[in-house]
Amino acid sequence: MKTALHDGARPAGLAVCALCCVLWLGLLLLAQYRIRVLAREGVPPAPTPSLATAAALYAVALAVCAVALAVWPGQPG
Predict the structure, then answer these.
(1) How far is it, in rounded angstroms, from Cα 61 to Cα 32?
(2) In whole angstroms, how far apart are CA 30 and each of 23, 49, 62?
(3) From CA 41, how far away is CA 43, in angstroms rounded?
(4) Which pTM was predicted?
């Protein structure tokens, strides 16, 4: 995110940074939910398909955001 905002904050750069933050928080919330389930159960249950799918989608979306920020047009390097 630092690279996208290096030469001044542009609206598109801010939007991508905000999206990355929202996605990261979503992934953290899913992880926290899974931790609570694992702590509550005696035998760890398998994650539900919807939880596993959501976690995978968050991770892929974060990777796409990272690539977008890494190759941001007009950035040095």
Answers:
(1) 19
(2) 11, 13, 14
(3) 6
(4) 0.69
